[in-house]
């Protein structure tokens, strides 16, 4: 089985597939310095633009095709449009690397990757992102979870262009009051809103699965933050949690995602790791 991490005391080489709002934030944090981690390579469409944002790109940080990052990186962090997800995932998994997807919803449509990772000696690590209480959900899943429900409210701009809305001719332009635009399972939501419900996908994977996790999505012109309210009922616990995430430069993604990625990476190399 291929090692997924370097020996203790060695530096973990990170490859970033994509330098959008989240990827650029992660890159800057790694460049600023995280003991045990180094940003070794990035995959970008426009090298000159990336160099302007990060002068290290092209010099101390090499550029690679997204599917080539795994050649000399220990971990590949995916920050790409959903259509590019599978090729990048396979390239990392087949090299026995640690693959960290941010397009978590795509895991629901590519469930075979988990078995592939097992065969190749790779690991898939989903960062917490905006999902507080993920440890509690995972702990509850060691027993019997009866139900998981999630209600997501986003400013209309954060849902604009979602395939579910486009297919049904639903326009959110000029919306004056909150409007429920979806009700169904996390799996159905991931298909219809592939860039909007990564939190729901992560919740379903931590808990009772995408076909039993219930999801509502609302477009709400009265809010400026992506808001998620989650309730969990299990044999060992019952709890609810609400997250109000400030959007990043990309209105579909919260500002907490990039710090969450770095925290997850830090946990791989730190002597002390708090939380499961």
Structure, briefly:
With 276 residues, the protein is of the alpha/beta class.
CATH superfamily of the largest domain: NAD(P)-binding Rossmann-like Domain
Numbering strands along the chain, what is their spatial order in the largest sheet? 3-2-1-4-5-6
Class from helix and strand fractions: alpha/beta
- Top-tier CATH class of the largest domain: Alpha Beta
How much of the residues is beta strand, in percent?
15-25%
Instruction: Please work out how many helical segments DSSP would assign.
Output: 10
**If you average the pLDDT, what whole number results?**
91
Can you tell me the CATH architecture of the largest domain? 3-Layer(aba) Sandwich
Proportion of helical residues: 25-40%
Span from first to last CA? 24 Å
| Biggest sheet record | 6 strands, parallel
Order of helices and strands: EHEHEEHEHHEHEHEHHEEEH
Write down the CATH topology of the largest domain.
Answer: Rossmann fold
